[in-house]
């Protein structure tokens, strides 16, 4: 009985999970920097 090689499916699964997660984390970091700059700007306006 042959055991199928599922390494490709494992790599594909990890890719499908981690790529969107990395994109989301980068998006959060970008938004955080933008909002932090906005808060500093608004505090200096007063």
Number of strands: 0
Give the number of helices: 1
Give the structural class: mainly alpha
The ordered string of helix (H) and strand (E) elements is H
Helical proportion? over 70%
State which percent range the strand residues make up: under 5%
Helix/strand layout:
Blueprint: H1 7-45
Summary tags:
46 residues; mainly alpha; 0% strand; rod-shaped
Care to describe what's here?
By secondary structure, the protein is mainly alpha-helical. The protein has a domain at 22-46. The protein has one helix at residues 7-45. The longest helix is centred in the middle third of the chain and has 39 residues, at 7-45.
Briefly summarize what is shown.
This protein has 46 residues and is an all-alpha fold.
């Amino acid at each position: 009985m042959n055991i199928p090689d599922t390494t490709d499916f494992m790599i594909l699964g990890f890719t499908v999970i981690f790529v969107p997660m990395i994109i989301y984390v980068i998006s959060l970091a970008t938004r955080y920097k933008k909002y932090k700059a906005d808060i500093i700007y608004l505090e200096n306006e007063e």
